[in-house]
Specification:
The protein is α/β, with parallel strands linked by helices. It is built from 11 helices and 21 strands. Helix content is 24%, strand content 22%.
């Protein structure tokens, strides 16, 4: 009975308290915390922040330089005498990066250890390094230190290529190699800067080599040998923005070394050997966000400098750009320094021309002055809207979207006067996953008659960025262009409601 009395008293106090709040102007409110901004649900997998920042670089340089520069080889055996590395001048990573910046690149990756095991810095892990070089220029070289300093000064991103395979080390193939050599070398490189954007691990793992004089073939299981989970955690603790490429499992090889990605290219993929077999295209239902990076050569010979080499034509390099950056990949373009430790003048001139061409062709975004409408626009939320005007507001953090179950839509851009158009670029809001499966583009010369554009182009995936040449050719893409008073983009199919943050027209 006492318990019941106490319970009734407590309830009376609560009721009295509520009445008092009501009388003094305070009332209980029902809070709806379920998606007040009406945001679309993500379509997994989705990228994490480092991967987004990595892909936003779009175009950056590869610098293959080292022992092979002086032997004329591509893959050294590991038995090369350290004195062979003898630069005729002091190597100049600042010059490398200035050349890359003139081409419109936003960063670079320096090869500091290739398969021959020769290290371009004074490392505690091996004597096979620059301190035993053949002259003072080589002995004073520290490529990772100077490369990182130059990148920061030029406001460019930087990273390092370090070969997991080491044809020089007597320990390769044993557990001691991983703990005493490879992981320690990665730690040494991480110490050159916490702001690195990429660490590059080549897929070449195991085979014949010098191995401290054993001169034999050694094989490993690369899926387990290098202790990748520990490596990822260790690097990220020091370099939180660093992406571990290839073997590191955070970005994938696009699958060729010719500077092209598939017109259908998903950022979704599965780790392991699948990316190398299917790198150009990705896998729509892949489990991981594993975006593609395309590595290609600017010269007509190898990755390292070779006598008699020449740079590819500028239009061919522009085609590579369209077929990589314009197909949801990044472009890692190799620029080999010569025996002076500098980029040759003919290569530098070509890159300067490429930078000028990219600026000219993508300087004026005609979409910024277009009127823009879309069907099926999603209702606004408390703090965010999804209006078509988000498509040409210059803000990557705003986006247009449809209602949840609507997987098709039409977007129309209109100008008061006809414009000469050559390219349409689309960018999905990939923070919530990659969605679009199929679309097509039309143009109107008069605002009422519609004609098909981009003949022969597979207008399938978009992803981070898709650049469509309206004449249908990446090889002869510029041309005279088309006179258009309007452009219509029809999204035919999407995995879920499509989200696009930017449309550009050039």
């Amino acid at each position: 009975m006492k318990r019941l009395t106490h319970l009734l008293s407590a309830l009376s106090l609560i009721i009295l308290s509520l009445n008092t709040h009501a009388q003094t102007g305070f009332t209980l409110q029902n809070q709806n915390l379920d998606n007040p901004d009406n945001e679309p649900a993500p379509v997994h997998p989705v990228p994490y922040e480092q991967q987004i920042q990595w892909q936003e670089l779009e175009f950056y340089a590869f610098f293959h330089y080292g022992m092979n520069t002086y032997t004329g080889k591509e893959w050294g055996f590991g038995d090369e005498a350290e004195t062979i590395f003898a630069p005729t001048e002091a190597p100049d990573p600042a010059q490398w990066l200035k050349v890359a910046k003139a081409a419109g690149m936003r960063g670079g990756i320096a090869v500091v250890k290739h398969h021959d095991g020769f290290c371009l810095w004074s490392t505690a892990t091996t004597t096979h390094n620059v301190t035993r070089s053949g002259n003072i220029h080589g002995q004073n070289t520290n490529i990772p230190r100077d490369f990182a300093r130059a990148a920061r000064k030029l406001d460019m991103k930087y990273g390092f290529y370090i070969s997991p395979w080491d044809r020089n080390s007597p320990l390769y193939g044993t557990p001691e190699y991983v703990s005493q050599v490879f992981l320690r070398q990665c730690a040494e490189l991480a110490a050159y800067g916490t702001d690195q954007f990429e660490m590059w691990f080549d897929g070449a793992n195991g085979g014949d080599g010098y191995y401290g004089g054993a001169n034999e073939t050694r094989s490993i299981d690369r899926e387990t040998y290098y202790d990748i989970p520990n490596l990822r955690d260790s690097v990220h603790k020091v370099c939180p923005q660093c992406i571990l490429w290839g073997m590191g499992g955070e970005a994938r090889w696009i699958g060729n070394e010719a500077g092209w990605a598939g017109e259908t290219n998903w950022s979704n993929e599965n780790r392991g050997f699948a990316p190398e077999r299917n790198g150009m295209y990705g896998t729509e239902d892949g489990w991981f966000w594993l975006p593609g990076e395309s590595d290609a050569k600017i010269t007509n010979k190898g990755w390292f400098y070779h006598e008699g080499e020449s740079a590819l034509p500028v239009e061919r390099l522009f085609q590579m750009y369209l077929e990589t950056v314009g197909r949801n990949a990044t472009l890692l373009l190799n620029i080999p320094p010569d025996k002076t430790g500098k980029i040759p003048e003919y290569t530098a001139d070509t890159l300067k021309q490429l930078g000028k061409l990219l600026k000219e062709r993508f300087r004026h975004d005609l979409a910024l002055k277009a009127g823009i409408t879309a069907t099926g626009t999603r209702a606004s939320g408390a703090n965010r809207d999804y209006l078509p005007s988000n498509l040409n507001d210059g803000d990557k953090d705003t986006y247009w979207a449809t209602y949840d179950e609507q997987t098709s839509a039409v977007i129309t851009l209109v100008w008061d006067k006809p414009q000469t158009v050559r390219y349409v670029a689309l960018m999905e809001y990939i923070r919530k996953g990659q969605r679009i499966r199929k679309f097509h583009i039309e143009y109107s010369p008069d605002g009422s008659t519609w004609l098909p554009a981009a003949p022969g182009v597979e207008c399938t995936t978009v992803g981070y960025k898709r650049i469509i040449p309206l004449n249908g050719s990446t090889a002869q893409s510029y041309g005279e262009g088309y006179s258009a008073k309007a452009i219509r983009i029809t999204i035919d199919d999407s995995k879920a409601c499509p989200l696009i943050h930017t449309i550009s027209v050039y």
